[in-house]
Amino acid sequence: MTDPDPRTIEDAAALLRAGRLCAFPTETVYGLGADATNAEAVLSIYETKGRPRFNPLIVHCADLAMAERLALFSDPARRLAQAFWPGPLSLVLPLRPGHGLADIVTAGLMTVALRVPDHELALALLRATGRPLAAPSANPSGKLSPTTAAQVRRGFGGKVPVLDGGPCAKGVESTILAIEGERLIQLRAGALSREEIEAATGVAVERAASGAAVSAPGMLLNHYAPEARMRLEATPRPGEAYLAFGAATPFAGPTLNLSESGDLREAARNLFAMIAALDAEGARTIAVAPIPRSGLGEAINDRLQRAAAPRD
Ligand code: TXA
Ligand code: MG
Description:
By secondary structure, the chain is α/β, with parallel strands linked by helices. Helix content is 29%, strand content 17%. Helix 1 crosses helix 5 (120-129). It starts with 8 loop residues before the first helix and ends with a helix. Bound molecules: threonylcarbamoyladenylate (TXA) and magnesium ion (MG).
């Protein structure tokens, strides 16, 4: 039986405490939440998303104190948390003995990815539930991440209750960092730019070498697949749809502009919803304008490349 959408934070917290799923908004994308200490509840995240294998999930905390009960923070880790939480930064940290998380949250790893989301409803829900919440993006595996409650409902055919918080402010997922001594290794580009992290820490952020032992195992190439083929850094051709950026090439077909003023924050916020909207127009191919690679452009280009990756 499907639970109805929660009308209040308390309704949503009650579902989660009872081991049910509830999707909720964060500043990045909507998450499909479950009590991270309840193995059955976490298992139903994998089933509902159809995740092909058990990729570890990000665990959301109400604050640094809750996070410190789950993982061991080195000094650099704590400084990063203090600088950027609440915010779109997930830290991969060693599990603390006695953490209480279900093993399948971390897929049996010795580490856990933690973050404190910068969203009033998410924080209120975490406080009301009183438990860490495992929450991957609230989309069926391999599909676009949702940035509105309506997209979550469409993705799961209305079978998952959603706490509606309107559109997400950032629009791309959190940046994932592993910390090794003083070294910072970016496992996933995301809504917090490398430049912001470097400016705050004075430490150069390294890119994870592909195939390295430390990696974000969920970063499968084909992870953001729309139905349409995507042609990147392209000028649109007749019959295609066009995802423009900045001053657009004049085009007669279906067109959406990520940001007419060329603002990367606005583009990140619009990215998944605009790909989904053009996809829904039924075009076989979406031509995507070139997007600069600096700042949030790194995460935007990363998601576009995944959406454009060849598939069967
Ligand atoms: O913005 C976000 O991060 C969103 C919102 C809902 O918070 N969540 C999200 O979660 O994107 P998900 O499950 O779609 O992505 C989790 C990523 C995966 O690529 C996974 O492999 C990586 O985090 N990950 C989780 N735990 C890890 C660990 N212990 N070591 C390395 N990578 C880990
Ligand atoms: Mg995802």
